[in-house]
Amino acid sequence: MGSDRWGLVLRCCLLLAVAWGPALSHEPRDPQEPQELEGTREPQAPPGPPTREEDNREKYSSRQGEEPPASRCYRCCDPGTSVYQAIPAPQINITILKGEKGDRGDRGLQGKYGKTGSAGARGHAGPKGQKGSMGSPGDRCKNHYAAFSVGRKKPLHSNAYYQTVVFDTEFVNLYGHFNMFTGKFYCYVPGIYFFSLNVHTWNQKETYLHIMRNGEEMVIVYAQVSDRSIMQSQSLMLELREQDEVWVRLFKGERENAIFSDEFDTYITFSGYLVKPAAEP
Asked: Do residues 275 and 235 make contact, with C-beta atoms less than 8 angstroms apart?
């Protein structure tokens, strides 16, 4: 009998625990919380017999403004206690939507020139640079020369015909351009030349000579008949081409024509030299 009685008591306690368990775990809601949307509101259970928590609330409400102690049990569906993590919104990678690079457009018109600015201040002198390397050797400078100076120690008389003055004394004859046998200068370097002729007249005789170029009379040396003998000179510049000839010719006249000289002194001289070759600019 005693064991059956204790078994009946245990069964009654289990039934009470199953019946009162949901009521004890229910937490009252705050009346100030916003109401949930109708679509998300859970269906409310039908009213049942008053629970122990409601009895405690009524007891405390009869006292002076005391609030009943909050229950330590919570439901998983209560606000602020969500166990599900928020899923972030999907993001689109814009770089994969970028199109291909387009063709280059036409070049635009050139804009107007701006105003010329004022000159800036002169900067400081930079450091001296290093000495450069030696360059390759250049071509040898080609200088052109031509010069002569000759004289005559014997007098010369005209025999009523043109006569070339031949010289017997050589002072300078560079490269042999003056031919002592013919008495003529031959041009081998074209260019500008200077020539000079000096003679001594004979008293009581006429002096009449020409400086010739290729058979053409260029200048004259003349002295009338006089009781005294004098020195006469003539000079000029000529532009010669290659193989041109220059010499002195005694002119044929009606009267006796002569130039004086002797074996001791030289009274007759003829000179010439190159001033500027034609190859130079």
From this structure: no
pLDDT score recorded for residue 2? 58
Tokens 């928020």 sit on residue: 86
Question: Token pair of 188, please?
Answer: 């081998």
- Residues 181-217: b if buried by 16+ CB within 10 A, e if exposed: eebbbbbebbbebebebbbbbbeebbbbbbbbbeeee
Q: How far apart are CA 196 and CA 236, in angstroms?
A: 7
φ/ψ of 224, rounded to 5, equals: -75, 170
User: How far apart, in whole angstroms, are the C-alpha atoms of residue 152 and residue 165?
Assistant: 9
What's the pLDDT tens digit per position in 211-225? 999 989 999 998 888
Determine contact, residues 172/274, Cβ cutoff 8 Å. Answer: no
- CA-closest candidate to residue 165, choices 71, 73, 99, 261: 261
**Which pLDDT score, from 0 to 100, does residue 121 have?**
86
* Per-residue model confidence as pLDDT tens digits over 107-142: 888 888 888 888 888 888 888 888 888 877 766 666
Q: In whole angstroms, what is the distance from residue 274 CA to residue 146 CA?
A: 5
Q: Is the pLDDT of residue 162 over 70?
A: yes
